[in-house]
Amino acid sequence: MNLLSRAALLSFGFAFTLAIRLLLLANCQGNYDTASYEEVVRILERGGDVYRETERYNYSPAWSLLLRLAAGLANEAGWTLTFVVGVFLTLFDLLTAVILYRIGSQRLDRDRGLLVALLFFANPVSVLVSSWDVQFDGVAIAFLVLAVFGAVRGVPSPSGAIAGLSLSLLAKHLAWFHPLLVAASGALGTRPFLAAFVPYLLFAMSFLPWASSWREIADHVFRHSGLRSLYGLDFLLLVPGVPDWLPLLLFVVAVGAAVYFLRRVELTRASLMLFLVILVFIPGISTQYFVWPIALGSLFPGAGYVLYTLVATASFVQISGTSGPDSGFGPGWYGPWWASIVWLLLEIRRERNRRRAR
What we know:
- This protein has helices at residues 3-26, 32-45, 61-77, 81-107, 110-121, 124-131, 137-152, 159-171, 178-184, 192-205, 214-222, 246-261, 267-281, 294-297, 303-320, 334-357.
- With 358 residues, it is mainly alpha-helical.
- The radius of gyration is 20 Å and the shape is globular.
- It starts with a helix and ends with a helix.
């Protein structure tokens, strides 16, 4: 296939995927979280406190400000808030695709860089989370991928990586442990852990205007988790006498160990593997969590990536469907957990083979 044909095929792939995304978004009827977005906007419009007046807001103030902006655009255009937020999320997914193209072009070549970008943008998990579930995890992922790009391209100053990590946490703190991984990799200069402290400091400072609601912030943000007893190591809670805090302790120990052992792995792959460790050990789950490893995983397509995509997509469709997650058919909540384990083991084997080859 010549260069022109490849370019035309890839362009068609992006255009077709964009059309699918917009079609899904136009037919989205909303859900619990989009109703939460509307509630947050109503609180903001009357000058209220989103942490004190609702239990549905579990993030830094940054997302509430973006929701206020989206509501203004929706009112001006006569569209629904859900549609405007979905368009906003699609633009961030496009930004992620562009950054992945840059990383892929540096690692491989231009054509395969475009293929990496399309693998992410057309991935059904990414499409469903942003354009059907209308979850904003993709915003945080875009800034995380930008931070990784800044850290691995050899820029002398770590400021770009620190800015990306900070914006990622402010958008949604799903990459909470990645600043430690980036610091441990040595990508942040001579004082890495001091530099890694900056994203956490900015995240904490963003709550200062709402400091009087610190109890609600502690409950709704820092103690918030996904659905429990449906996924992962929560099966341990079925054993008589096992304390509720054990899965959380195992999670912290596992992620801390992962940061330590992954510090010598190439940062892009290490960031992917850290997400997989998080998905294996995290106490609590939601369908939007399924998208976390997709962007970085698109840089390393293989059997694990394909298996996880298929299982996570099937789980998402089943859980979101009328049959519900308790149906006897389909992978349910535990499907992505097992797929994450398999993918992680395959990545560990691939990394060992790479080291032996050296």
